[in-house]
Specification:
257 residues, 10-stranded mixed β-sheet, mainly beta, single chain, 20 strands
Length: 257
C-alpha cells in the first residue's frame, strides 16, 4: 500500500478503548478503493488530502452533561498526498474503503481541494487564505467540517467556479491574503454513500479579481469595501453576494463578445 498511496499518519485526537493498542491502519490487499481525482488549474496546486477512518470496534470515550460515560465510534486521521498523473494536470489518490487493522477501520470522509501555489505573485508578504475546499462523506456521520450540503447518488462529479479575492485587513494585525472565492464558502460538503470515483474540477477565472480593504477601527459607519473588476465599489458583506456579483460581471462580459 505504501507504493500505491504515500501516507503520513497523524496522531489520534481522542482516547480509544475496546480493542488492541495497535490503532494503525492495515488495509487488506484486496480492499475496494475509492479514487479521488482533481484537475488542477495552472496557477493552483492540489492540497494534501485529510482522510478520516472510523471504527465501531475501537470506541472513543466522552462524558455527558451529568458526567455519564458515553462511548462513540473511534476515528483516525491520515494525510494522503495526491499523485500527479504523468505530465498532466490531473492528480489522483486511491483510498482503501477497508482500513483493516484490529480496529476494523472503515473510510468515513475525505477533505481535499486546491490552493494558490505562489501567493507572492500577488505582492510582497501575501499569503494564501482560504477557499477551494471540498469534503466528501462516505457514511452517515458528519465530517470534521460538519454535515453535508448536498446528497449525491453514485459518483460525484464536481465542477465549481472560483475567483481570486485579495483581502487586506488591519484589525488584530495587518494581513494580506489571496483567497479562492466560490459559491458555498470555504468548504462545500457532499454525502456520496455509493461513490467509488470522486472527480473535482475547479474552474479559475484568474482575470476577474475581487479586492477588499478592511476597516482600521471599529466604529459606526465603517465597512469593509469591495472593489470589483468592473470598477464598482460596494460595502456588502453578505455570504454569497460577492460570488454572485462576480458571476454577473463575467457573464455580462461574455455576452458582449
Amino acid at each position: 500500500m505504501i507504493k500505491k498511496m504515500p501516507v503520513a499518519l497523524v496522531s489520534l485526537l481522542v482516547s480509544l478503548s475496546g480493542c488492541a493498542k495497535d490503532y494503525r491502519l492495515a488495509p487488506p490487499v484486496d480492499s475496494e478503493q475509492i479514487t479521488v481525482t482533481v484537475k488542477v488549474p495552472e496557477e493552483l496546486e492540489a492540497e494534501v488530502m485529510q482522510v478520516m477512518y472510523r471504527s465501531a470496534t475501537c470506541k472513543r470515550v466522552t462524558h455527558g452533561a451529568s458526567g455519564q460515560r458515553i462511548e462513540l465510534e473511534g476515528y483516525h486521521g491520515i494525510d494522503v498526498y495526491p499523485q500527479r498523473q504523468g505530465q498532466s494536470n490531473i492528480y489522483q489518490a486511491s483510498l482503501p474503503m477497508d482500513g483493516g487493522g484490529p480496529c476494523k477501520w472503515r473510510l468515513s470522509n475525505v477533505t481535499f481541494g486546491v490552493a494558490y501555489k505562489d501567493p507572492s505573485r500577488f505582492g510582497e508578504n501575501v499569503t494564501y487564505g482560504a477557499g477551494g475546499g471540498i469534503v466528501v462523506i462516505f457514511d452517515h456521520n458528519n465530517s470534521p467540517r460538519g454535515g453535508a450540503n448536498f446528497e449525491v447518488e453514485g459518483d460525484p462529479i464536481i465542477r465549481k467556479e472560483y475567483y481570486p479575492w485579495l483581502s487586506e485587513t488591519f484589525l488584530g494585525g495587518y494581513n494580506k491574503d489571496i483567497n479562492l472565492l466560490g459559491e458555498g464558502g470555504i468548504y462545500v460538503k457532499y454525502r456520496a454513500l455509493q461513490a467509488r470515483q470522486v472527480y473535482f474540477e475547479p474552474v479559475l477565472h484568474s482575470n476577474l479579481m475581487l479586492y477588499s480593504v478592511g476597516v482600521k477601527e471599529k466604529k459606526e459607519g465603517n465597512f469593509v469595501t469591495y472593489t470589483y473588476p468592473d470598477g464598482s465599489v460596494v460595502a456588502d458583506g453578505r455570504p454569497n453576494s460577492k460570488f454572485l456579483k462576480l458571476q454577473a460581471i463575467r457573464l455580462a462580459a461574455e455576452g458582449k463578445r
